Amino acid sequence: MKVLELRPRDYDRGLRWLTAGRMERLRLRLAEEWVESGDRVLDVGCGTGAQALLCARQGARVTGVDSSSAMLEEAHVRAIVQGLSDKVDFLRLDALELAEHFQPGSFDVIVLSLVLSELDERSQKRLLAACQTLISNGGRLVILEEVVPEGRLARLGYTVQRWFWVAVSAFLTGSTTYPMRRPQRLLADAGFRTLPLVFYGDGLCMLLGQKAPLQPRAEESASDVPELRHRTTPRSLLRDLACLVTRIWPPYLKVRPGLYRIGRPGRSAPVLVTGNFDLTVRRVVKAMRSMSGYLLVADSRGINVWCAAGGGHFTAQSVITAVKRSGLEALVAHRRLILPQLCATGVDGRKIEDATGWRVMWGPVRATDLPAYLARGNRKTESMRGVAFPLLDRLEMSLVMWWFMAPLLAVIMFIVWANATVPAVVSLLALFLVTGVLWPWLPGHQGTTKGLALAAGSVVLTATLSLLALHLPSEQLFNWCIGLSALALFVGADFQGADARRRGGEVEQFPKMVPMELALGAAYLVVPRLMGW
Ligand SMILES: C[S@@+](CC[C@H](N)C(=O)[O-])C[C@H]1O[C@@H](n2cnc3c(N)ncnc32)[C@H](O)[C@@H]1O
Predict the structure, then answer these.
(1) Contact 123, 131 (CB under 8 A)
(2) Which ligand 1 atom sits closest to the C-alpha of 11?
(3) For a substitution probing ligand 1, which of 1, 65, 67, 111 has the most ligand atoms within 8 Å of its CB?
(4) Is 223-385 in the same CATH topology as 4-218?
């Protein structure tokens, strides 16, 4: 269903089509059978408000909460159009923050419709526990959800039909849903008496729970938190490769934001924060493989923390949301978050401290320094603070940038000079690799200056090769020199964006590069005429 959420306006139409109208009928049935006039209803993850508005029609006073402002906007509009806006309140609120916003016993009915499957199992348990507190005595919990059937054959049929949608959703949104497993047990553990489960095909299920007398709930422990482990396997190597080729092109490989554990963390274990780019998370886990701790993965839209912080995608708010949803306070005895130093440019630590009460500490630049940093009592050495750009990182960025530019160059060359397509793409790779190797030694501090040096070097090398071995005709030699210079200038300006030690990056360098590229274009047009080629 994640795919449908991309377009709130078409969401309900898509859902109707996908479930062949079953979802609509279920919603109607839920409102008619389980909601009475005067009931106080909470619809968690209300989306476009379809269920909330049906409950309001029954005469209930409804509160709909959702974490997506786009979905809520659509819900607001529908409430106004249907003349029900005085009976429904829509709030932007995370499902895992309900207990902080509402008093215990505030609702007679809580509806969870297709929202539990958006949460991992630990969060499902935490949400159900919050619902138990918020429902009044004798109140009802009504769940409409995708549930994994228990019989083997039914499970096989369900898995096959689901596979296609998982692939589509992963491709378009980089995320997936988590259908419920053994929902009755989950509900019983959370303090609900359940009625028998009713399946409506494709795993769609209606589940009813009645608040049971509150049972003391065991404190959550580290083992309830999903674990991340470092292992080098063919799958992890494939993911490394995928991260390399999709670093600039979306969809980026993402990790689901949330709280994870590394090893067996105790109550004094460190809490590390990072973004949800798959490669970053795996590198942090690898660096921490001999230690234990919690890793709080905040949403950075699948981009590495440095770029995401610079681009406004990884902010104090991303960290605040992650902390509030994490349930960390029950797991550790301290209130310290360790953030990567490289995101400090875009993340306001004081804002996080004011909003959460957690102290922000800026950790080392490189994940590999984390064990030493922690062993020193969260203190950095000068080298842990310094931003370096070593050869391996430079070569990695050369490949990433080449992979991003190569298809564009291939298309352009194919249109203007088809025969030179392959040599041009190979030359681009060579230029990126040479730039990666020689970057610290290329003259100048600016990418365009370094690009000029690279262009001069390419011209000298091509002319020498032509003189000694290739014996290219003058016009061809000239064309190659112009083409390589244009590429070299671009590569120099572009590569600056990969160097975290320099300000500005491509945004600053490209305008400086453009006049030089235009001069090369003019030379390409004028010189052959002057020379009579
Ligand atoms: C599949 S839609 C279901 C919408 C609606 N309940 C329905 O039955 O059609 C899931 C909704 O849950 C919301 N959601 C996902 N995670 C959430 C969270 N942690 N807190 C609040 N809402 C969340 C999404 O924004 C989305 O609107």
Answers:
(1) no
(2) 9
(3) 67
(4) yes
